[in-house]
Design a protein that fits this description.
Number of helices: 12
Mean pLDDT: 95
Oligomer: single chain
Largest sheet: 7 strands, parallel
Number of domains: 2
Distance between the termini: 10 Å
Radius of gyration: 22 Å
GO molecular function, one term: NADP binding
Helix content: 25-40%
Strand content: 15-25%
Family: Belongs to the aspartate-semialdehyde dehydrogenase family.
Order of helices and strands: EHEEHEHEEHEHEHHHEEEHEHHEEH
Structural class: alpha/beta
CATH class of the largest domain: Alpha Beta
Subunit structure: Homodimer.
Bound molecules: NADPH dihydro-nicotinamide-adenine-dinucleotide phosphate, aspartyl phosphate
Number of strands: 14
Catalytic activity: L-aspartate 4-semialdehyde + phosphate + NADP(+) = 4-phospho-L-aspartate + NADPH + H(+)
Shape: globular
CATH architecture of the largest domain: 2-Layer Sandwich
Protein name: Aspartate-semialdehyde dehydrogenase
Strand order of the largest sheet: 3-2-1-4-5-7-6
């Protein structure tokens, strides 16, 4: 019998990417979908393959939620915090699949990324685990790219710097970046081709304008265009940001490691629209040659691709623009660092709305059907 699957948060960025992927893979053929809203009650469900699924249901209507076999939410942590515990307390035994971070570290929840931890997923299902959560976007991308090295336990520690797109913070942040882009065009639009105007004068005008335009920075708090923000999320007691804290905590939970793999570094917001990038220094626990490393990495899953360490390949294939909207996980700049034979450098780009958020959840739903 087809399972009743509820979707909350399908209108947001992660949710809409999820729906598109499900439509493409014909996933809706195997379920009875029910679409919920927190704000558009009375509105219509999205058309799936041109089929209508009636009116939207109230995402806080516990009677309907209780009737679901599976609930998939991309609505965010606030929704999860209000609904999840109440639903469980009311005795709901269905599967909860979530994109938000709130439940990740709970004992009775598994963080899922099946190309990396499928065995643990299968074990958890047979042990009666009913709550499955996607990992933080940079964590999923790191694990997809370095999966082979993790699988063969070749990593001592990782130092990572992330370059995270504006859309990672949510739709309103992405809009704010676009508004900032739009606001600086009039400053240089007409004068760019005038040879008599110094480029540094234009730069000064833009910098002055951005430093005095609070109106354009309600979400990010400061301008992101023409700048970057080396701070994402709240501060933890140990001086990390919460985004930085997630890497080591989530990876070790997901891999159920006996010996903790140490991971730390800075998370940085940059002014790309979509796709996160990560720069790694990896301390291997033995000296392996680059050819073997490339083989281990590319054998791990079909999405990871080795980008040869040369300029043309790198600038054409290892950028957010080249990867946006695809499931590709290119990894390049792979070389031994001059500091020692066990120190490896690598650079990874991945679409944080696909492998970073919606794809692990889509695949988890398929596993449960
Ligand atoms: N963005 C990302 O890259 C990643 C996000 N996540 C997590 O996924 C969850 C959802 O994130 P994300 O999709 O970015 O959030 P969004 O801000 O895009 O959407 C969240 C909800 O906001 C409501 N909403 C209000 N106005 C609009 C609008 N104009 N257009 C669309 N939706 C609107 C919708 O709910 P309703 O229809 O009920 O009003 C929607 O489901 C969060 O927990 C986030 O942490 C995880 C990994 C990556
Ligand atoms: N915080 C991430 C996106 C995200 O939503 O992460 P999480 O799912 O861990 O809250 C970013 O800003 O790019």
């Amino acid at each position: 019998m087809k399972k009743k699957v509820g979707f909350v948060g399908w209108r947001g960025m992660v949710g809409s990417v999820l729906l598109k992927r499900m439509e493409k893979e014909n996933d809706f053929n195997n379920i009875i979908p029910i679409f919920f809203t927190t704000s558009q009650l009375g509105g219509l469900s999205p058309l799936i393959n041109n089929i209508s699924f009636g009116k939207l249901k109230n995402a806080y209507d516990f009677a309907i939620l209780m009737s679901l076999d599976i609930l998939v939410t991309c609505q965010g942590g606030d929704y999860t915090n209000v609904v999840y515990y109440k639903l469980r307390t009311m005795g709901w035994k269905g599967y909860w699949i979530d994109a938000a971070s709130s439940l990740r570290m709970n004992k009775d929840a598994l963080i899922v990324l099946d190309p990396v931890n499928r065995l643990l997923i299968d074990d958890s299902i047979s042990c009666g685990i009913k709550t499955f959560v996607g990992s933080n976007c940079t964590v999923s991308l790191m694990l997809m790219a370095l999966g082979g090295l993790f699988k063969y336990k070749l990593i001592d520690w990782i130092s990572v710097t992330t370059y995270q797109a504006a859309s990672g913070a949510g739709a309103s942040y992405m809009k704010e970046l676009l508004m900032q882009m739009n606001s600086i065009v009039p400053i240089f639009g007409n004068i760019l081709h005038n040879q008599n105007i110094s480029i540094l004068d234009i730069e000064k005008k833009i910098t002055n304008f951005l430093n005095n335009s609070e109106m354009l920075s309600k979400n990010f708090k400061v301008p992101l265009i023409n700048s970057l923000i080396p701070w994402i999320d709240i501060k933890m007691k140990n001086e990390q940001t919460r985004e930085e804290w997630k890497a080591e905590s989530e990876v070790n939970k997901m891999l159920s490691t006996n010996k903790k793999i140490l991971i730390d570094g800075n998370c940085v917001r940059i002014s790309t629209l979509r796709c996160h990038s990560l720069s790694f220094t990896i301390k291997l626990n033995k000296d392996i040659n680059i050819r073997e490393i490339n083989q281990i990495l590319s054998d791990h899953n079909k999405w990871v691709t080795i980008i040869p360490n040369n300029e043309i390949s790198t600038i054409n294939h290892l950028t957010p623009l080249a990867v946006s909207g695809t499931l590709k996980i290119p990894i390049g700049r792979i070389r031994k660092l001059s500091i020692g034979k066990k120190y490896l450098s690598a650079f990874v780009v991945g679409d944080q709305l696909l492998w970073g958020a919606s794809e692990p959840i889509r695949r988890m739903l398929q596993i449960l059907l």
